[in-house]
Design a protein that fits this description.
Four copies of one chain form a homotetramer.
Chain A: E1 18-23, H1 28-38, E2 43-49, H2 58-61, E3 70-71, E4 83-86, H3 93-99, E5 104-107, H4 113-118, H5 122-127, H6 132-138, E6 162-164, H7 171-175, E7 179-181, H8 185-199, E8 207-213, H9 228-231, E9 236-237, H10 247-256, E10 264-270, E11 277-284, H11 291-302, E12 308-310, E13 327-333, E14 341-348, H12 352-367
């Protein structure tokens, strides 16, 4: 890979500075986007919306931010921006992002992700048919309608209009798109960890994906179960029984990364930390792998990647990645079982590589800039 | 089950009060044992050892404790006690526990656990042969010698001399034994969760057991990786690749609970909390189970148990159990996979049900007292 | 002191078991009251109100609680209870508590505290006149009207109808009262620490009282500033400029404890912990004190007290008291300044000695039972 | 003030890049220095020492660091560096720093601070005589010998050879010095907060300075009282009775900032957070101040300062500053007391403005570079 600063197909580099608007700028993700953009040399943040703090100033809400008024979404003149990064919640993000005119957009909600993953490019169609399992679910029972969660039609400007923004794996399409559906934090961690096995078609059974996330992943709206006194000294699973709303995205994203669509049982947990996700993946293998050979797949696939770090000798921890846009990956072969299996551990900062950081990475790609701009 | 206050086979109730000594009384587990005994109506704590605080007083080290001098182990007159609870580290506990004369003993180290689990009672031998997988490992390559970790010979006073102290499942043997090998904290959580499936021989594949523990599980000796500034806001896996030293105990313990010995891949994680373990178990099934039927197994097996709580509608969290001797269990059937599987979640307080609490539960059984004495 | 199990003046011991209702039973304080009452041998909890969980069961909200329905306050038949413990918020507690008929009541809100402290018993009036400073404020400008915050008139059944429930210092009056205004958590810590100096009239200048509290002190209603991600890794002062709403209570309470009313500058801070208050008090002295002599005042005043622990050689920490009804106190003489001064450190569990525990202590006194019943 | 990028008196700008060595590079402060230098455009880190990790590589110990071998101090060729930043512990830092030849040095230990503060420049001597209180203590009883803690003689190359590095207040001297004694974290917070009052001679009594620090302030060496399980959910005072070892520095530093030397009672506390200090200062005033006027002093004195932020309407919290080199200050006038007093709250990141950040600020000054280089 490591083709990380290519120019977008059929489009010159973007205006510099690019004027950018941030929708939903005062949640945890929005604030992180604002912080990143404040340090981005080619971006000028000119518009910010917040329903809860409308009337205030972005600078007084986020230290170091531009002195831009916080407006209600309904009052914002989005047409004044070259690009928009939407941190609106699920159900709103897709609609507002696709409503924009000619500008670039990154939608950090879940709304457009399945649509982006299921879009059939000619190449993709030729290469393989969509796996029935997740398509059936995503389509709400087998029909041909829009996938669950997608509330808006993407203007049909060719197959490249909308891309799924798992940057390291879909660069070309992202660079050629006008709208990017930014991946969820859990799917980002899981898919980055699984990709080398999926690409080589080495998965030999149901993947058991446990993950634990810091509480910023649950948003900044007050809720009793997120109070300090409820979260501290506790640890809990949620979305049990393989019922997490990100599962469709994970399955569709995995199907996109290789010739076979794997089964995944995904169980998220809530950690008493502010930021960070650790995914602990158990992957049955189609054939036994030598530990050195196994590690070589991740090393080869992520060589030269500025934001992926493959660890040779230990699993990653949150401390390796919090505050950075890096995904850190470790791999261990499993002893003491008859059938071959691997463990893959992936750590990311849920607000950066799992949201705002990857969004800026994608914006850079769309704008034709070096992918690392503003992120180091 | 729920036969939780039977009198010990062939032995009258113990002296009341029983004089008790605690070895290694100032570590996290030792302090918890001391706290429990201070509130136990039938016990008088008369002896306590501590290498790091020898010369001091137990009362000034543990609030509410008896005013007993802290002695070095080598100086302690263990023969003066009716019973000993040893919180000595692995490698020491077994030796000191078995060195005692006629008194009762609970060893909280790992030293005697495999020996206790592998001991062949006539009944056990008749019922099933030992599974090859873990015996081979435990025996250090297939021989018949003492299992790894057992550093001392248990005086041969019959098959009931030594019991594995997973109270809810080995009551009869515990009540008839003089020495109990108290289970490890992780095996306690995992085995309590798996037992209903193991007893019914319903496991249909490799069990993926992820667990996360608070830091008191790692002991009270200063170590850089346990400093607040290293642990807070972090989360990490360890013992990866199925290499945790408790795996043998888990495999042997599981084999004891049913007709077939399962494969387990166990991965512990370190949580930024002080106490508590949550085990998240993925169990492939031999046959598909209705959710209501599945839950009924745990309900039936643990009905009337004072220290096991089966939750009907949600997975347990640490907050359900910390500060108590209770194991809380939740079960979920897994959707969206071809092969049938269950999730079992178990929460315990690693220092209580995972150590000191279960030790007192076992002492009560050995002494012929109600199992809940001093624990509610 | 230490007269801690006297029978109430002119009243026989209460019915045993006493039927008790808890108002506001599902907040942090309410839940703690419920937990304590569940273990209280002379109390039967028969009624519980909760606006947010009305229709549910107390047992499913608080582990180990009686299986009592959660009712709306307006629907509850308070007359069915021998006693009521009100954990209703400020502005509601006083009204509902005084509305009761003949039963006993402890109001844990701030509503009745000033009224209780300012009530002039004949003895008090003889002993000293009320200090002008805090009376002026509390009376809303110098008049004779009801103090700020008191929203209800206490039925005039003699001077002993209403008591301020700082147990160790107002036992006689509490035992003779029908209604107790339970002290605030901060005033409890500060007043217990200052009392020995106030009683001896040794304070020689403005007391600087810094205190830090765990977040349960701020209640269980969802609020953004109490979210885990806002509180963790942070520490903040609030109510700065001597503007905390508990200051009046602190000043009036201090005036009640000795011949002179001191000046206090009180500054609370919010700690990233769940429970516990540490008050760090700087007290200018009227005369220089020898360290041993200084400590002897606290030792003498709190000798035999079951719930006050005076430490000889170190300041107390939260870990000394969390989970208990104990106030731990340490004293240090200040070096390197021209004028004499002392430091007094007081640690309490804000939910126990600072709320629910002291409430039960007071209920025990009112009921004529040993003060420690249900609290050890 | 705000004269923050002046060139050093009588010395041209330093070589660019400057080759720098870091002594004690793997403690919390050392790692922070390494991180800052890795991002500093004019510095090349060429040498790093670590006794505990000697033989390893800096890059594998600190993510993003230069790939420099970790050497034992005794083996390091310090002469190869243009500048040295010493994070060695107290008792070692001063000796090694002054042993250097002609290069620049910042000593982050306490060893040289008193010497730097007590050094009599002609101007200082003319302006005022040293206050007796702290000099007596610092000098070990009134003599003229080296101050307590200073273990090495600074080569006598003029009055400007050694400066106390409270950057905002001693810029000129720092820029003209070859060695800087970097202030302690607590003195930095306290002195930045007090300076505007000290300069105007407005302090009217004993200052009560409470402060709370995250645990990284206590270093990275394993110690039981710093274990996660000991620190989490706890809060404690230490160095009580005005006995903290930083008090001399605080008193001497305060005396340096204005015409009168104040009395300070300083009480540090240990917070269950990783980073950050909040100082809560109670300052009796010589005369009553209007709140607006009071605030204007801090605004005026710190106007244009890149690393001091004066808040208009609320006290600062750790979240305002952690991860930055900023000191955030808030001021409140105290109500309800007879004598006038102010509260000053100061928040800093103990590892940045309280150590590594200010060290780099000082290095920039010594090197003749803009003071903010590498710090934004």
């Amino acid at each position: 890979m490591a083709m990380h600063s290519q120019s977008p197909a059929g489009r010159g580099p973007a205006a510099d500075p690019l004027t950018v608007g941030v929708l939903g700028a005062t949640g945890y993700t929005g604030r992180e986007v604002v912080r990143l953009l404040a340090a981005h040399p080619s971006v000028r943040l000119v518009l910010a919306t917040s329903e809860s703090e409308a009337g205030g100033s972005l600078a007084s809400s986020v230290a170091g931010a531009a002195d831009v008024p916080l407006e209600r979404l309904a009052d914002a003149d989005l047409a004044s921006c070259d690009a928009v990064l939407s941190c609106l919640p699920h159900g709103l993000g897709g609609e507002w992002t696709t409503r924009l005119g000619a500008g670039l957009a990154v939608d950090l909600s879940a709304d457009l992700r399945l649509q982006a993953l299921l879009a059939r490019s000619p190449a993709a169609t030729a290469a393989r048919s969509e796996p029935a399992r997740w398509r059936g679910v995503a389509d709400g029972g087998g029909g041909d309608g829009p996938p669950v969660g997608a509330t808006a039609a993407v203007p049909d400007s060719g197959t490249a209009a909308l891309a799924y923004g798992l940057t390291e794996h879909h660069r070309e399409r992202i660079g050629a798109s006008r709208i990017v559906a930014n991946p969820g934090c859990y799917p980002t961690a899981v898919l980055l960890g699984l990709a080398p096995l999926l690409r080589r078609d080495l998965v030999g059974g149901t993947i058991v994906a446990n993950a634990a996330s810091g509480v910023t992943g649950a948003g900044r709206s007050p809720a009793r179960h997120l109070l300090f006194a409820e979260v501290a000294e506790d640890f809990r699973a949620y979305g049990t029984g393989n019922a997490h709303r990100h599962l469709d995205e994970m399955l569709a994203g995995a199907a996109r990364l290789g010739p076979s669509a794997p089964e995944i049982v995904f169980t998220p947990h809530l950690l008493p930390v502010r930021r960070g996700i650790l995914a602990s993946l158990h992957v049955p293998l189609a054939a036994r792998l030598d530990p050195v050979e196994a590690l070589s797949f991740w090393r080869a696939d992520y060589e030269g990647e500025p934001f992926v770090r493959v660890l040779a000798d230990r699993p990653p921890t949150l401390a390796d990645v919090v505050g950075t846009n890096v995904a850190a990956i470790g791999v261990a072969t499993i002893a003491r079982t008859a059938a071959p299996a691997l463990q893959v551990f992936v750590a990311i900062d849920n607000l950066l590589k799992g949201a705002a950081g990857q969004a800026v990475q994608n914006l850079n790609l769309m704008a034709g800039w070096p992918e690392t701009r503003g992120l180091q």
